[in-house]
Design goal:
The structure is a single chain. The protein has eleven helices and 13 strands. It has 356 residues and is α/β, with parallel strands linked by helices. The protein has two domains: 91 residues, no CATH class; 243 residues, 3-Layer(aba) Sandwich (Rossmann fold), CATH 3.40.50.150. α5 links the parallel β7 and β8. α9 crosses α11.
């Protein structure tokens, strides 16, 4: 799946790339596909050290373009840490480029209008199953709940239906209009980032969720440590994010994988690197479950058909997850089966507990 919402303001540019082990800039001269050549380039900022372990040496993984929304002509490079194996975008868009790479038609801004109603119904059922599995891992009924990147508030409402008081249901969201509506419904919603939120007291949250958000943030270490502080002893943190150690990620590793979501995904994890990030913040890993990565499969095929070699734009449209219901159902069923059989899909849900 893709992110629930785009990130907010970012920190200032990281230190100079002279600290890295890769001085080769030939990738910067790769020409964009014809459809992107009319786009302007956006400002970038270097990310000289690994966002997980802060190591300064890495190697290039792949280079690609904004194949989904075609917002800019920049080539974008993913690199892999030489120490822990974490993958991140380096360089990544600068703060002033965010309105460009997240245009008004970005799907998270009008999700309900873009998604087929049958697909919406299917997602609602999968979401309910996901929340039930998370609650079983918690082992008790939560008295408080936090959803980071809560969007329109569907998980907040689900927890209210399951008996949690709305005054103990928290949501963080960057859209002020949505936050006002959620507050009017009685939820404790705040328009801020995790890194700047001062409205949640330490030890106050029983269950925190973060679905397809951590891949968008500039400092996942800061975010995870902050959530650990908010959780009560024994509380559970559920993190869902793309898994770069998956079949489709390997098949389409050379720039086409849909999970790259270039240039909006800034951090890509394996189960091992995500576990390290959580353990470094003091969490104990409870379990890792594999969700459906149907949109990643579809965008991978879409990008290859549309941009590789001789373009096939008509065929590519069959694999647009917002327009093609039949492939969406097929890939969802395929990943559900693979997950049940123990295979790693391209969307992982990791549950971690705060000791105590």
């Amino acid at each position: 799946m893709m992110a629930e919402h785009p990130p907010g303001q970012r920190r200032q540019p990281a230190s100079s790339a002279s600290h890295t082990s890769d001085p080769n800039d030939a990738w910067r001269r790769i020409a964009p596909p014809p459809e992107l050549q009319r786009c302007a380039a956006v400002a970038t900022q270097a990310v000289a050290t690994c966002p997980v372990c802060e190591h300064a040496h890495y190697r290039q993984l792949t280079v690609g373009f904004d194949y989904e929304l075609r917002t800019c002509a920049n080539p974008w490079r993913f690199v892999r840490c030489a120490r822990c194996g974490h993958v991140w975008l380096n360089p990544r868009p600068a703060v002033e480029a965010l309105p460009t790479i997240y245009p008004p038609n970005y799907y998270a801004y009008n999700y309900d209008q873009q998604i087929n109603r049958l697909a919406q119904w299917g997602k609602q059922q999968l979401d309910r199953l996901k929340l039930r599995s998370i609650l079983r891992a918690l082992g008790r009924a939560p008295s408080s709940f936090l959803d980071i990147g809560c969007g329109q508030g569907r998980y907040l409402r689900a927890m209210a239906e399951w008996g949690v008081s709305r005054q103990q249901i928290y949501g963080l969201e960057l859209d002020e209009a949505i936050v006002r509506r959620l507050c009017a419904e009685g939820y404790r919603a705040f328009c801020c980032r995790v890194e700047t939120c001062e409205s949640i007291a330490p030890g106050q949250i029983d269950l925190a969720t973060m679905f397809h958000v951590i891949e968008h943030v500039d400092s996942p270490r800061t975010v995870v440590h902050r959530v650990a502080r908010w959780l009560a002893p024994g509380g559970v943190f559920a993190v869902e994010t793309p898994n770069i150690d998956s079949l489709d990620a390997r098949l389409f590793a050379d720039r086409w994988w849909g999970g790259y979501h270039i240039p909006r995904h800034w951090n890509l994890f394996t189960p091992e690197t995500l576990a390290r990030l959580l353990q470094d913040a003091g969490f104990e890993i409870v379990t890792t479950r594999y969700q459906t990565g149907h949109s990643f499969w579809m965008y991978s095929l879409h990008h290859r058909l549309r941009y590789a070699g001789r373009p096939h734009p008509r065929a590519a449209r069959w694999f647009d997850p917002f327009q093609s219901l039949l492939p969406l159902v097929g890939f969802t069923a395929f990943d559900l089966l693979r997950g049940r059989l123990g295979f790693r899909t391209s969307a992982m849900l990791m549950l971690a507990r705060k000791p105590g």
